[in-house]
Amino acid sequence: xxxxxxxxxxxxxxxxxxxxxxxxxxxxxxxxxxxxxxxxxxxxxxxxxxxxxxxxxxxxxxxxxxxxxxxxxxxxxxxxxxxxxxxxxxxxxxxxxxxxxxxxxxxxxxxxxxxxxxxxxxxxxxxxxxxxxxxxxxxxxxxxxxxxxxxxxxxxxxxxxxxxxxxxxxxxxxxxxxxxxxxxxxxxxxxxxxxxxxxxxxxxxxxxxxxxxxxxxxxxxxxxxxxxxxxxxxxxxxxxxxxxxxxxxxxxxxxxxxxxxxxxxxxxxxxxxxxxxxxxxxxxxx
Length: 286
Ligand code: GLU
Known about the structure:
Elements: H1 2-7, E1 13-18, H2 20-23, H3 33-48, E2 52-57, H4 60-67, H5 78-106, E3 111-116, H6 118-122, H7 124-139, E4 143-148, H8 164-175, E5 179-184, E6 205-206, H9 211-216, H10 229-242, E7 245-250, H11 255-261, E8 268-270
Helix pairs in contact: 4-5, 8-10
The chain binds glutamic acid.
C-alpha cells in the first residue's frame, strides 16, 4: 500500500475535478474565493513541477443563478426549467472563467477553456479534434479548464454527461492521464454513509470495484452538485480501465492535493488496470 502511494509522486499527467459544493459557500451559494485561489495555486505548482495538469470544474449553473439572483420559478414546465438552466450556465461559465483567468494569470500561468458534450466523444471527428486540442494546449504549457457545455447539452436528448465526475473520467481517458483526482465534500469512499452511521469506515484502497462497493456508494451528499459517491465510483470504473489511478480526497482543504502528490495516504485510491482495446465510446451509455 505504501508503495502504491509512493507511486503517486511519479504521476505526470493529472486531471483534477472540483464540484460546485467545493467551490461555493454552503450558506450563501457565492463563490469561495479563498478556496478557489488555493486550488489555482496548487495546480500552478503541479505545472511548475513539470507535470501536465487539467482542471475539470463545475459551478457554471450555480454561479449563473447567483449572478441573476434566480429563485425557483413555480409552475415551470420541464422544458422551461431546462432553458433557464442553460441560460444560467451561459452566464455562470463566463463568470467562472473570469475568476479562473485572473487567478491563473496572477501565478503567471495561461489557462484555456474547453467545453464538451457527449457528442464530442461519440463523434469520431470531434473526439479526435478534442484530443488534438488537449495535446497542443498541454505542449504549450497551458492549463485546460473543462466543463460540460451545459448551454446545449440537455438530459432529455441524451447529450449530457449528467455529472462532472463522469466528464472528468472521460477527460482522463481522452488525454491518457495517469491520475484523476476528485475533490469531494467527504474524505473518500466509506463502508456506509458516515453522516448516518458513525461506525462507517474510510476505505483507503480499492484494487477492484465490486458490486458490494457500488452498494456502499450512496447518492449525492449535498444539493449543490449533481454527482454523489455512486457517480464517483462509476468514474473510477472508466478512469481505471483507461489506465489512470483515481483518488477521491476532501476538497475542504486544497493542501490535500499536494499531500496526495507527496505520497501521503489520504482519501480513497482506486487502482488503474488498463483494459486492452479500451474504447471510450463503449463507456458513454450510463
Ligand atoms: N456542468 C455543471 C455546471 O457547471 C455541473 C455538473 C456537476 O456538478 O456535476 O454547473
